[in-house]
Structures are given as C-alpha cells and as structure tokens.
Amino acid sequence: MTQLQTAHRARFASIGSPYFGIMLAIMAVVLILSNIGASKGVLIGPVVTDGGFFLFPLAYILGDVISEVYGFKVARKAIVTTFALSVFASLCYWVVIALPGFDDDYGLAKQAALENALGPVPLIVLASLLGFLAGQTINSWVLVKMKQRFGEPKLWARLMGSSGVGEFADTLIFCSIAASVIGITDFGMFANYVVVGFVYKTLVEFLFVPVTTAVIRWVKRREPSYGRIAA
C-alpha cells in the first residue's frame, strides 16, 4: 500500500467504548420526542411546519457523528435500534389510551386530551419510520462512501453532501404520510410543508457543520479504537 493510499484510507472505531451508547440513547430520545411534536401542525406566518421541527435535525447530526466515527454498519444498527424504540413508545401510547380511565368529567377530559395528543402518533411513527430509515440510510451510505474515497480530509464536504440527499428523501417521504395527520389538505400547503421542511433541516445541518465537526474530532480523539478498523 502506498503512502498516499494509507493517508486516504477510511478509518473507523469499534463500539466497545461508552460514547456510542450515549449517542444512541440521545438519538432515540430526540426521535421519540420529535414524533410527538410532529403530530401538531404549526403555522408561523406563511411557513407551514410541525411541532417537532426544532428537534429532528439533531437526530441527523448524531447520525453523521456515528457514521463518520463508526462506519455504515454501526450506523445502520443505530437507525434500526432507534426505530425499534420509537415503535415501542408508540405501542405504549396505544396501551395507555386503551386502558379504562375514570368516568368523571376530569377523567373524560384527560382521556380526550391523551387521544388528541398521542392518538395520531402511530401514523407519525410510520411516516418517520419510512422517511428516517430511507433518509438516514442514504445519508450514512453517502458519507461513508465519500470517506472511503477521500479518507479523513474534507469532512465538511461529506457532511454537507450526505445531509442534502438524505434530508430530501426523508422530508419527501415523511411529509407525504404526515401531512393529512396534522391537517394539511391542499397541494399548496403540502408543497410549502415539503420545501420548508427540506430547506430548514438542511440549513440547520449546514449551519451546525462546525459544531458537528468539532464533536466528531472530540469523539475520535477519545475513542480508543479509532483508526484500528479500516475500510
């Protein structure tokens, strides 16, 4: 192997340290909370979005960190695990709603509030499952392929490039399913929802590239096994 090939070799870490578990836990919590928030339609001036708009990009940033540090196979495990936990949370909501409650006015009002707040969540979870699974998988695959091609340099380029294609796939799939749940009924509002969602999520990820880069470098320096796995 030449010196150039060695310098550009893609390096990753194993998941033996606690860092991966911490990021996976945060990623799962962010997704579960964003699924709840996404059941509420939000109108800010002419902008149509949902209540989870400020949380969801964080899951992609964490996905970038995991993909860059641990590789595609580990990132795929993180995506599947995150969604398994999200589906479990949705099933728990269903059980809570189905359990018989008090039949006084307060109990009935609380039951109605739970149904209105958490009832749509299974459909939101389905939208997230398909959208996030596709988007995160594409995002991780593109990032790792770029790293395998160029090695450690140009981290900013693979973060931005992978985020753009991943977020577009995610937003289109998610909005197509979630639109009717949050009350979007015409094409104009739907187009607004898709465009605003894509531009917002991508812009947030682009603005956070310096932060994401700093976090990735911090984890790489403290991950004992980083560099021992090559692809």
Automatic annotation (TrEMBL):
Protein topology in the membrane: Multi-pass membrane protein
Keyword Lyase: no
Compartments reported by the entry: Cell membrane
Transmembrane spans: 12-33, 53-72, 79-102, 122-144, 165-184, 190-219
Pfam families on file: Vut_1
Primary subcellular site in the record, as a coarse category: membrane
Annotated keywords: Cell membrane, Membrane, Transmembrane, Transmembrane helix, Transport
Domain of life of the source: Bacteria
Family assignment from sequence similarity: Belongs to the vitamin uptake transporter (VUT/ECF) (TC 2.A.88) family. Q precursor transporter subfamily.
Entry function: Involved in the import of queuosine (Q) precursors, required for Q precursor salvage.
Record protein name field: Probable queuosine precursor transporter
